[in-house]
Amino acid sequence: MIGTVTIHPSIDQHILIDKLTKDDAIRAREIRRDPGGKGINVSRVVKELGGETVAFGISGGCAGYMLKSLMAEHGIPFEAIEVPEETRINVILTDRADRTQTRISAPGPRMALADVEGFMQKIVTAHPLPPWWVLGGSLPPGVPEDFYARLIMLLQAQGAKCLLDADDEALKIGLQAKPYLIKPNEREFARLVGRSLPDEGALIAAARTVIQQGVQMVAITLGRKGALIVSQDAALHVTSPDIEVKSKVGAGDSFLAGGC
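The structure corresponding to this sequence follows.
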């Protein structure tokens, strides 16, 4: 069983168009709505691969009701707390003319500290407690930057292993809680260590420095170049399959789910 935590979930509205022309009316060729957010994406892939998962998240307003409905359609148990403000709806615009994809991320609902604490309590008292957890994504307004760090310490104190996929201060502070694994992409990892990492050797050396702080493994996604998985004693470069790219949304989350 794999538990996932998404404190900043979304409904991802994918819109397919023939060509983006500014200041003109554009007809959508296709519209699809999916439940989104890093942890939720991981749960969706785990489910598709035949694994067991439970997703924890927040829900608010009419969009929150739609989010819960979409999760039920996917057959994924969704343990959510209700918040007063609306769940965000992101827009992913795919242009068939030039094969580009534009993502517009909406601001999420502001959370009160009481809701944050209630959400954390709901997670750590889950029964049965999943032995593996994936925590990921940005933090909505009102959520302290040490949210992941605190949650990791509480879960790992109960014997669980935590995989963290975050960025900026949430990742830096979360690292202090010594999660089992972190999964930044190449740019996020360079920001974490505070310097340019021009080649594979530099990435491996920087990953080993991070591992010395208590993390067991560092997995760095490299886009078309695949991924680099580093432990204290080994480094493995996994190549990406040569396939047609239809969407980049959730690619890193799918990689993490496959590794679970």
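The mean pLDDT is 93.
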